[in-house]
Every structure is written in structure tokens, then in C-alpha cells.
């Protein structure tokens, strides 16, 4: 953050205000960790703050401190709209375009509040009075830590806030193994542990909560794994029937795409997940090295994200989506 942005934020927060904090649709650990931590800070300094998530989030995040007070937009539309209409300031975290909030985006777009964006994805939209965007950051949770540091407020980080921030950094860095994990990231983590984050307990809460049906679904995903060696690409498919047969819950397929990327010689991996309720095929894309899945997703699948991690969607059937995907790959052979 530059000095001008810091002054703007300080002015916005100088008197008690009604504040809404928003993560993206289908929020993950970074989205929920960052919003909940920021919410706790804002309440601490005298504001009336509420986290409003566009839709529900995975069960393995429902231990996070403060999660019980989150308002879910698509199940409490009237109450959520009232909060947004009353808001003087709206923080948008871990996304940079209103479209990433689904139906909630239309409501946000008509708000008269001052927006503050904190995000580490590429190509941010221009809707905020303060845009704190840094694609080099490991996570939005790490950015929230630096945001607090810029406000001379890291001494306000208590055990609950530390747990939320640790969770987002851990999940978005693949337990600190992705290239975005820097020496600074580890310094931040050290402070969070010193502030009360139970690192081993958080890891258990996130990763050691598998159901039998989830592991069976993983088996199906691995059985459906296909490799295209000429393009150093692997992909996984999951149909709606396969999800239903294994009692799919939100978050159950988290990380499945990384099994494709773990194969020797593979630098591009995708998982295609059928979602009949939304009539789309949801896609998660991962890569190694310089191959940009952000550019690939933006060019072909109405998506985006980071160089090595992105999301997208297709309106075609699962079979047609796979056929289209395979037909596109020859254009990228030189890059793969």
C-alpha cells in the first residue's frame, strides 16, 4: 500500500461506521480466513462489521473463529441486502471483480459505500477508492497482515485473528510449498504462531476431516485421470452422478486437481466437475513454471486467477467440454 492509500483508509476508519466484508463465491480458506480476521479487527476498533459470503462454504472451515456470525447472501437475501445498503464501507477480499460474487455482484454494484479491495489475483477491476492489489503475495491473508502493519495495528492480532490468517496462508500456499511462499511469508507465519495460532491444530482441522465418501470420490477421480503426454497435460473428470453417488459436500474436491499435477512430466492439470444445478462445468486449472493458467482460463473459460492456479467454467456438456479442451491444446504446444 502506498502512503496515499494508507491515509485514505485511516480517514475511512477514523469514526465508527457500518462495514461489510465480502469474500468471493464458493469461498475457500484464504477468503474466509481473511474476511473473518479483518472483521474481528474492525469490531475491535469500534466499527459495526459483518462478513457476508455470497454462498455457503466447506464444513472444514466452520471452526474458524467468528464463522457463526457470517451472513450467507443466497439464503438470507433480505437481511444481506439491508446490511449492504446500510454500509458506509465495503471491503472486498480475495477477488477483484463483482462477477466473482455471483448474484451478489448486482447488489454490490449499486451500493453507495466506499469500497476497499484487498486481493492478489491478476487484472483487478476499477471499483474501489483503495485498491491494494499484489499478485506476488502468497495469499489475501498475508495481505491483510501487511494491511494491518501499514495501519500500525499488528499488535491488535489476537489468537482468533492469528488462527484465521494462518489458515488462509497455509491453504493458499499448499502448506507453504508453492513458489509464492517467501521468507516474508514465513516471518508473518512466525508472528501469527507467536500470537496464538495453533499451527498443528489448524492443519488437523483443515486436512484431517475426510469422510469415507470423500475418499471414495477421490478414488473415482483418480480412476478418471487421463494423461495427454504430448501436451504434458493431465485432466480429471467428475460427473454429477459420480458426485451424487458419493454424497458430495462443498469442498470435497478441494485439491483433487493437484494429483494430476503431481505426475512426473506434467506441467498442466485440470479438473472438470459437472454442476447440473448451475448448468455449468466447473474447472480448476493448475500449472508449473511459466505456463499461465490465468491467461488460458481468461481466453477460453470465462475465468482467471494466478499464473499457476486459476478457475473457469464451461456452458457445454461434460463430454463437449473435454472435446473442446483437447482441441484447444495444440495452440499451446510450444508453451507446454
Textual characterization of the structure:
With 336 residues, the chain is of the alpha/beta class. It folds into two domains: 205 residues, inorganic pyrophosphatase (n-terminal core), CATH 3.90.1640.10; 121 residues, Diaminopimelate Epimerase, Chain A, domain 1, CATH 3.10.310. Helix content is 39%, strand content 18%. Strands 3-2-1-4-5-6 form a six-stranded parallel β-sheet, with helices on both faces. Strands 7-8-9-10-12-11 form a six-stranded mixed β-sheet. The longest helix has 16 residues. The radius of gyration is 20 Å and the shape is globular.
In short:
This protein is of the alpha/beta class.
CATH class of the largest domain: Alpha Beta
Could you say what the CATH topology of the largest domain is called?
Answer: inorganic pyrophosphatase (n-terminal core)
Unreliable runs = none
Question: What structural class do you assign from the helix and strand content?
Answer: alpha/beta
Query: Which architecture of the largest domain would the CATH scheme give at its second level?
Result: Alpha-Beta Complex
How much of the sequence lies in strands comes to 15-25%
The count of β-strands is 12
Task: Please state the overall shape, judged from the principal axes of the Cα atoms.
Answer: globular
Radius of gyration computed on alpha carbons: 20 Å
- The arrangement of helices and strands along the chain is HEHEEHEHEEHHHHHEEHHEEHEEH
**Average pLDDT metric:** 96
Amino acid at each position: 500500500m502506498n502512503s496515499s492509500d494508507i491515509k485514505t483508509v485511516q480517514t475511512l476508519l477514523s469514526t465508527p461506521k457500518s462495514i461489510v466484508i465480502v469474500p468471493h463465491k464458493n469461498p475457500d480458506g484464504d477468503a474466509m480466513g481473511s474476511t473473518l480476521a479483518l472483521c474481528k479487527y474492525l469490531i475491535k476498533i469500534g466499527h459495526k462489521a459483518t462478513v457476508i459470503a455470497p454462498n455457503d462454504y466447506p464444513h472444514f472451515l466452520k471452526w474458524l473463529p467468528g464463522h457463526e456470525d457470517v451472513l450467507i447472501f443466497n439464503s438470507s437475501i433480505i437481511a444481506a441486502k439491508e446490511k449492504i445498503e446500510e454500509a458506509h464501507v465495503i471491503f472486498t477480499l480475495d477477488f477483484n471483480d463483482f462477477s466473482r460474487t455471483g448474484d451478489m455482484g448486482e447488489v454490490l454494484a449499486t451500493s453507495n459505500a466506499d469500497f476497499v479491495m484487498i486481493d492478489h489475483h491478476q487484472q483487478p477491476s476499477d471499483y474501489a477508492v483503495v485498491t491494494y492489489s499484489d499478485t506476488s503475495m502468497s495469499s489475501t491473508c498475508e495481505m491483510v497482515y501487511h494491511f494491518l502493519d501499514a495501519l500500525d495495528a499488528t499488535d491488535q492480532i489476537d489468537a482468533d485473528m492469528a488462527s484465521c490468517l494462518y489458515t488462509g496462508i497455509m491453504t493458499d500456499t499448499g502448506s507453504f510449498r508453492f513458489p509464492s511462499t517467501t521468507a516474508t511469508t514465513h516471518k508473518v507465519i512466525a508472528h501469527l504462531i507467536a500470537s496464538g495460532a495453533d499451527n498443528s491444530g489448524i492443519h488437523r482441522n483443515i486436512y484431517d476431516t475426510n469422510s469415507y465418501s470423500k475418499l471414495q470420490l477421490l478414488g473415482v477421480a483418480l480412476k478418471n485421470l487421463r494423461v495427454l503426454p504430448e501436451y504434458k497435460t493431465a485432466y480429471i473428470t467428475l460427473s454429477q452422478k459420480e458426485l451424487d453417488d458419493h454424497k458430495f459436500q462443498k469442498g470435497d474436491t478441494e485439491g483433487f486437481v493437484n494429483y494430476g499435477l503431481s505426475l512426473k512430466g506434467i506441467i498442466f492439470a485440470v479438473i472438470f466437475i459437472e454442476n447440473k444445478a448451475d448448468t455449468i462445468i466447473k474447472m480448476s486449472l493448475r500449472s508449473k513454471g511459466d505456463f499461465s493458467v490465468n491467461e488460458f482460463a481468461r481466453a477460453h473459460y470465462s475465468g482467471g486467477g494466478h499464473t499457476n492456479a486459476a478457475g473457469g467454467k464451461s456452458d457445454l456438456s461434460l463430454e463437449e467440454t473435454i472435446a473442446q479442451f483437447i482441441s484447444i491444446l495444440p495452440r499451446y504446444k510450444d508453451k507446454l
